[in-house]
UniProtKB/TrEMBL annotation:
Keywords: Glycosyltransferase, Transferase. The keyword Transferase applies. The keyword Zinc-finger does not apply. GO terms for biological process: trehalose biosynthetic process. This is Alpha,alpha-trehalose-phosphate synthase (UDP-forming). The lineage of its organism: Bacteria, Bacillati, Bacillota, Clostridia, Thermoanaerobacterales. It comes from Desulforudis audaxviator (strain MP104C). Belongs to the glycosyltransferase 20 family. Its EC number is 2.4.1.15. InterPro entries: Glyco_trans_20. GO terms for molecular function: alpha,alpha-trehalose-phosphate synthase (UDP-forming) activity. It comes from the Bacteria.
Amino acid sequence: MTVLHNLERLVVVSNRGPVEIKETPSGVSVSHTVSGLVSAVEPIIEATGGIWIAWCGRKKRKPGVGHTWPVPRTEPRYSVREVTLSASEHRDFYLGFANDCLWPLCHSFIDRCVFNPDYWRSYQLVNQRFADAVAADWREGDVVWIHDYQLALTPAMFRALRPEARIAFFWHIPFPSYDVFSILPWAREILKGFLACDNIAFHSPVYLDNFLHCVSWLLDLEVDPEAGIVRWEGRDIIVRALPIGVDAARFIALATEPAVRQRAEAIRRSIGARFLVLGADRLDYTKGILERLQAVELFLERNPGYADDFTFLQVAVPTRTEGKAYRELRRAVEETVGRINGRFGEQWRVPVRYQFRSLNPEYLVAHYLAADVALVTPLRDGLNLVAKEFVASRIDNTGVLVLSPFAGAAEQLTEAVIANPYYPHDVAEQLRFALEMPREEQARRMRAMRENVTRYNLTHWWQSILDSLAQTLGGHLRLSGL
Ligand code: G6P
């Protein structure tokens, strides 16, 4: 007999929330945040309704679990339960353990990892706060969907409070190989933390494989890689590689809007050059922006014929600006932009334009449409949504995507031009190849990639998560709203 599980409510749990709440002299302001996680998860909770438990950027003298906020404020579609942090937790949990330890470790930057017991203590404490918040809001029929490396311990802490809960987990960043992950002094605790879920998913089969090696070597667990099952404390946990898709229909609709197309033309006019190459990323060292600029410099050096025809525009979205590594990176990037423009610019023309700002979706799509080439060359990236969004927006099948093989998206966008970000000579070479690619070849590649992003879109991703959860529970799942 087929069992049909009705899921009544979706409870999303992540550190970064979809809104940022700030106290201003004229009252509280609520604005939208920029993050790959948020762009992927928000359309789902908007469709299903539910509650999102998250930190909304506020530091409090007495941190804890705060109010719920309707989102959007007028005609709300879901609500956000705010979890606040103290200034020292922000330093030790967020900037410290999450972003100076797990983030560089998982992106295989082991020299950047800081192992500090105070950071670890704070990480445990904040993860417990999130677990308590989930338990307080939880009711029978909920599906709890916890996200990412900042909250790896929350599943086990929440399971201890509500053993019968259905918990899914998505790990948004790379999962490194055993020899890298085992460097972490708390590697076993982190694994046990999210093994408390019913199902766990990653962006790529490579990360899934790394995870399975880690659990079998570090915890001596029984693993069935064929079936995608890990046995832990008498439970079968389903593990899957389920790469996120983009809301392709939304990007297509935006790319069709006359206002967005006019804006794209305005960007082209203001640039003036014949070729526009675009980079758009959070200003993070994993994104390879500095290395990309070096490649652009090399390109200009080797191809003087392009001097009058070429503009590289880097949009660098501010992120983790209180972190030392991020402040240093910003300085280095801005110095490099200055140096390149000093070398190759003329008084009326600069080859590199740089903007330190975030773009709203309309403006972002206008940039995607204005560019001839998107340079998406992270040193390591869980997936990279920019690559998929660029492709989804190119409704006329023009334009070229130059992509790093170290972005999870490269496994799906196989018709992209692949360039090794660690070797600027290769990126410079592939950039030239992309700029000189005939229209028919551009269209052939773009069409194939567009087929991929429209078929494996966001709804497909969410449905695969539900299917894998259904497998754990036995039967089918139905969630109202989808
Ligand atoms: C990546 C992570 C997310 C994170 C986002 C922004 O996409 O996977 O978990 O929210 O970066 O970083 P932030 O530190 O601002 O939350």
